[in-house]
């Protein structure tokens, strides 16, 4: 299973699930060893199809780091933290998440848009 690490140690993603707000953006950066990239993307696409069918899902984009980077970043928009937490906690999603190798590290964080 992917190792979850917090970008902000004071506010891990599971604590953010308790905040009832929306719309939200989940920015999830993955460290994926080069030799695992294609296998990771195959599994991720299955997860993405599942998430796209969940209530409250809005959109998703995957990005790859440049210059031979081993980072991939998923940016997903959801109507609310509650919708994301429900989808994330579903047994089907958790079964798929367990298929990822242990050497992949995930840095998820939830954001709200602000005016600048």
From TrEMBL:
MF terms (GO), sorted A to Z: monooxygenase activity
Pfam families: ABM
InterPro entries: ABM_dom (IPR007138), Dimeric_a/b-barrel (IPR011008)
Keyword Ribosomal protein: no
Domain ABM intervals: 24-114
Keywords tagged on the record: Monooxygenase, Oxidoreductase
UniProt cross-references to SUPFAM superfamilies, sorted A to Z: Dimeric alpha+beta barrel
Signal peptide segment: none
Protein name: Antibiotic biosynthesis monooxygenase
UniProt source species: Streptomyces yunnanensis
Lineage, opening ranks: Bacteria, Bacillati, Actinomycetota, Actinomycetes, Kitasatosporales
